[in-house]
Amino acid sequence: MTYAGRVASTKTSGQVEHATDEPVADETRQETISPIAMEVVPSAASEEVHDDPSRYTRAPGARTRTGSQPARLTLREKYERKGKKLVECAAELEQARLACDAYKRELRVERDKSQRLAIQRDDLNIKLSESTNSLESERRLRADAEDLLAKRSAELDATTALLPTTESITDTRIVGLFRDLNYELAQSATTVAEAYEGITRRTRGPPGVQASLKSRLEACGALPLLKPSSKSTVDPTTALQIGLQAILIDFARTFLIDDVYQNAQGLKPILAALKNNEQELVASRWSSLAHQYARNTAEGQSQPQQLSRRLADALGEALMVAGYETGEGASASARGDLVLLKVEDTLLGVARLLLELDVILGEKVSVGWMESIVVPHGESFQKDSMDAAFQGDGPSKSEKVVCSTALGLRRTVKGESTILLKPMVALSSLLRSSTARPSARPSHRGRRGGRPSRG
Length: 455
Known about the structure:
three-stranded antiparallel sheet, 14 helices, 455 residues, three-stranded mixed sheet
């Protein structure tokens, strides 16, 4: 019996009639309560059923709907299943909440890391900006330096284009070359003088001696030695040797001074003006340049054979003035040939040394000026600036210089001169009549012997 039938059995007949007259639709309406309402408010639905049981009564003999009790069971099962689902959902929600909290913690950690990285990024950006600015500054400095270097290089190229190439030559080497030259000149004079030893010479000079030659021999001091007094105590061979040596020294000195300008005499006053008015470095460079091009244009003057021939001609003229026979009516060329037969190799060595020193002194001295020096005939002897080569007793200040027998060397820098090699001289005591006989041979490297070492 259904719940409505039990209720109906307890009712009075009037009540039964009333129940019988109630439409069946109410029961159907009550049974179709929304499952959602049951799930949301299950207690309200249960109370409604128990509080109003009359709604489920029906008239005697009325039939209940098939499956009313299973329907109520189905709602209960649904309610229980929904409850389980709610519990499961609550558990899943709790797990999701825990996972969300974990994700939040991880997110906070990542956010902190991101903030730190952002700070590092900002620092790196600042450093990058500073480095970029520094790089740009360095690039500008480098560009300015390159521009300055290019300008200075152009100026240097323009300057060096006007100047000859200079080499580093030490003073020691130049002094050594001068000593070698003095040695070769002394050897040449000694060889020629000894070749005429014992030969009688004319007491009267040849009638055709030119005045210019005689004047040149007097200026260098060779003439009184080539034609010594009969009362002189110096032997003729030594006198001839000293005279020939004086001629060769004078020739070498003249050659080193201005022989290269024979075809360019107009340059000499210009170079002198440069030396007196311009800075020393500028004047020296222009002088080197002028010397180089003058030497290149002097055809035939820079060959050792031609120069040795000129030296032989000078010796031949000196022998003629001294009164020695060099061939009856012989020309200057013939006299030079006779000299070359005796000392050709030595004169070739002299010529090579002269050409080398001419290039060095004229073009390759990079600081100041360097020049050969001699002592003029008639100067008083000065021990500090010269050495005596031929003498008897010790020389005194009262003695006069007859001639120079060896070249000296002097360097001048900013107006201050330094003697690197003293010139050697023959003194007047050689020509003085005296019972004291002077040395018959020179006291320096003009005598025969080994070649001097370069100092």
